[in-house]
Design a protein that fits this description.
The protein is an alpha/beta fold. The chain has 16 helices and 8 strands. The termini are far apart.
């Protein structure tokens, strides 16, 4: 049995708390929001996960000291926009080499840093790992079969976390490619907005297949330019996460995209979804990285123009379709060139 704290009281953190409780671990849930902790104490379930019940022995707290001290693992499950501020709150309490597992997805717009880089900058004494993959909270909380990846700086840390989480319905792989995992998990949210926009416009399966396929090409193009491994983008944290986020109505990014495609503004769509739409926050950062590494991201660029520049969704699709003619895979030789 391990002593584990979930840092953040959102639906993903609660789903993981239920999973870890089923695995026999001692769980503490921390949130900076007193009303959120009060709700969880009273109901032992999150409003977004009805029927997914936390056990009676779960500890709920707003006190950082109670959440951090003496814990074997801290699971950082706050929205990406709160990762830095939350890490700063915990910094002085974290022991040398205490393990922190980040399970949120995003890129900081102002610094272009991944979330694990933010945590390492704010809490340099921590042993930071990440977890990513196709894993909606609604399904993990219900115990539906799910497969995911843990990335860490050492095999020992990755295997330790793998053993904490893995069970007959939650299969965990491990990887050393933290950067590739985080880029795949962050940028797929932007492509999922595009897939939702296409759905909102009334386009079909052909359109979505094209967006998913060309979307993972863009993600891999940028990710490998930054040092991520191509194989990572072909796996669970790349194409796997992209497929589930573009196809499922559990995806807040796809739902927001649908509303935008139907004519709502970005702000109106986020208000209606009533959850953090991470792709909106990662979209500008993705273009900042594209400029830094001199990489072309046509789908992600069009999403930015729809979100922030007032371009109509229909016009964005037309411009994607009418781009200059291209070769699909540029390094494949023609017979006469061999």
């Amino acid at each position: 049995m391990a002593r584990i704290s979930i840092i953040g009281g959102g639906s993903w953190g609660i789903a993981l708390a239920v999973l870890l409780s089923r695995n026999g671990h001692e769980i503490t849930i921390w949130s900076a929001l007193e009303n959120e902790i009060a709700m969880l104490k009273e109901k032992h379930e999150h409003r977004m996960l009805p029927g997914v019940v936390l056990p009676d022995n779960t500890v709920f707290t707003t006190r950082e000291q109670e959440a951090v001290q003496g814990k074997d693992l801290l699971v950082m499950a706050v929205a990406s926009s709160y990762t830095r501020s939350t890490a700063r709150r915990l910094k002085e309490l974290v022991e040398n080499n205490q393990k922190i597992l980040n399970v949120a997805k995003g890129i900081e717009e102002t610094t272009l840093m991944t979330l694990s880089e933010i945590i390492e900058q704010e809490i340099p004494q921590a042993d930071v790992a990440v977890m990513s993959g196709p894993s909606h909270a609604e399904e993990v909380g219900r115990g539906l079969p799910t497969t995911i990846v843990v990335g860490a700086g050492s095999r020992a840390t990755a295997e330790y976390i793998q053993n904490l989480f893995m069970n007959q319905v939650f299969r965990v792989y491990i990887s050393p490619d933290i950067l590739g995992m985080e880029l795949g998990g962050s940028l797929k949210n932007v492509v999922a907005l595009a897939a939702g926009i296409a759905d909102g416009l009334g386009y079909g399966d052909n359109t979505k297949a094209a967006l998913i396929t060309r979307g993972i090409t863009e993600i891999a193009r940028l990710g490998t330019a930054m040092g991520g491994r191509f194989e990572t983008f072909c796996g669970l944290t790349g194409i796997g996460d992209l497929i589930v986020t573009c196809a499922s109505m559990h995806s807040r990014n796809r739902r927001a995209g649908i509303l935008i495609g139907q004519g709502k503004t970005c702000e109106e769509a986020m208000a209606e979804v009533k959850m953090v739409v991470e792709g909106v926050y990662s979209a500008k950062a993705a273009m900042g990285l594209a400029r830094k590494y001199n990489v072309q991201l046509p789908i992600i660029q069009q999403v930015n123009e729809v979100l922030f520049d007032g371009k109509s969704a229909d016009q964005a699709v037309k411009e994607l379709m009418l781009r200059d003619k291209k070769i699909e895979v540029s390094d494949l030789p023609w017979p006469e060139e061999q």
